[in-house]
Automatic annotation (TrEMBL):
Domain of life, source organism: Bacteria
Family indicated by similarity: Belongs to the amidase family.
InterPro entries linked: Amidase, Amidase_dom, AS_sf
Protein name: Amidase domain-containing protein
Amidase domain span: 43-149
């Protein structure tokens, strides 16, 4: 269900964040950076139909990930697909010519754990050629928080 991850992530996160920040956004919108304010305002305009569709898809994703986690102990994956970009850079152009917003790139790989509610942990595993940190994400089964924390501690040593 990978092709649905981004839509479900944004379909849940944006309206939920908008609901949480609603009072502050209405009374003192200037407290928010322009890019955040735009997302929160967009979330207020999403329909209940879209939100419920994302919720239903989340349920299907949880079922599939639960099945997957019956066959593996832990998933190790990159935390983000790119290290830090310069301040003000709004997009990333990949080697195949695909362009992705920095926000989408940064949440894309953590979205499955966020959507499914599975425990995840990011640990530092080195640096790129510019000295920027590289993180590895560990995803475990439901209730596997202790295993992830122990593994993360071992990796950091």
């Amino acid at each position: 269900m990978a092709r649905y991850v981004q839509a479900v992530q944004w379909g849940l996160m944006v309206p939920e964040a908008s609901a949480y920040h609603e009072q502050t956004l209405c009374s003192v919108p200037e407290l928010y950076a322009a890019d955040v304010r735009v997302l929160l305002e967009a979330g207020r305009r999403m329909t209940a139909v879209d939100y419920l569709r994302a919720q239903r898809t989340r349920t299907l994703m949880r079922q599939e990930w639960s099945r997957l986690m019956e066959t593996v102990d832990v998933i190790a994956a990159p935390a983000v697909p790119v290290t830090a970009v310069p301040v003000g850079q709004e997009s990333v152009t990949w080697p195949d010519g695909t362009v992705e917003s920095v926000a989408d790139a940064y949440v894309r790989l953590s979205a499955p754990a966020n959507i499914t509610g599975l425990p995840s942990l990011t640990v530092p595993v080195g640096e790129d050629h510019a000295g920027l940190p590289i993180g590895m994400q560990l995803i475990g089964p439901a209730g596997g928080d202790g295993v992830l924390l122990g593994l993360g501690q071992a990796l950091e040593r």
